[in-house]
Design a protein that fits this description.
The protein has 206 residues and is of the alpha/beta class. Helices cover 32% and strands 17% of the residues. It has a 6-stranded mixed beta sheet.
């Protein structure tokens, strides 16, 4: 294989109280009911994902627990590395706010499909533009160090949007038009001539 294959999985659904607020990089728990209900999806991912592969998670437990669920469903247990630069967007002082509290704090009009614009800078946090730069640089580094191999990354909706934006060369507001589903698979390849997006939001087993 003359390219690096990336298999990006968005972590499982988080618990109900977390979904009621802007949680960003907060280390919130997964929804226990969803973990049980999604067992067939984990099994399908275990069959679908490449072997062997390098596994990467972020510092947040929801990505590690998602990886563990895939292993428990049949993927041969593998060691993972923690990659801080693939973490979710840091929302700074907005983290923990109820969604209804955010509009009064915005300096730019909200995005049609997201609570804030791609250029919006949360106090003490980072804009989506910065997430794209952070994630893009990390993917380029991983592509160089794993040339000819597959890399499975369990990450977050914002980071996966940023990865696609980097690959396609689109801006932050364009990236926010993408809806990344929990436990969906996004496949990308880094070739010598550039990036190729193979699929977005593939649901294993469907």
């Amino acid at each position: 294989m003359s390219h690096t294959g990336f298999w990006l999985i968005r972590h499982a659904l988080v618990e109900e109280n977390a979904r009621a607020m802007l949680y960003g990089t907060m280390d919130v728990e997964l929804c226990p009911h969803s973990l049980e209900a999604e067992r067939p999806t984990y099994a399908a991912l275990a069959r679908r994902l490449p072997r062997p592969a390098e596994w990467v998670v972020t510092p947040l437990s929801r990505t590690r627990r998602t990886a563990e669920a895939v292993f428990a469903a049949g993927y041969p247990g593998a060691e993972w590395r923690v990659e801080p630069d693939l973490i979710e967007q840091d929302l700074g002082e907005w983290q923990g706010l109820a969604h209804a509290e955010l509009p009064a704090r915005l300096s730019l009009p909200a995005h049609p499909f997201w609570p804030h614009a791609g250029q919006e800078m949360p106090p003490g946090g980072e804009s989506m533009s910065e997430v794209i730069l952070r994630v893009g640089a990390t993917l380029e580094r991983l592509a160089r160090s794993h040339l000819g191999h597959d890399v499975i990354i369990v990450s977050h909706g914002g980071a996966i949007r940023a990865a696609i934006a980097h690959a396609l060369g689109i801006g932050p507001d364009n990236a926010l038009h993408l809806s990344i589903h929990n436990l969906s698979l996004t496949r990308m390849e880094r070739h010598r001539g550039g990036w190729r997006v193979v699929c977005v939001n593939e649901i294993a087993g469907v």
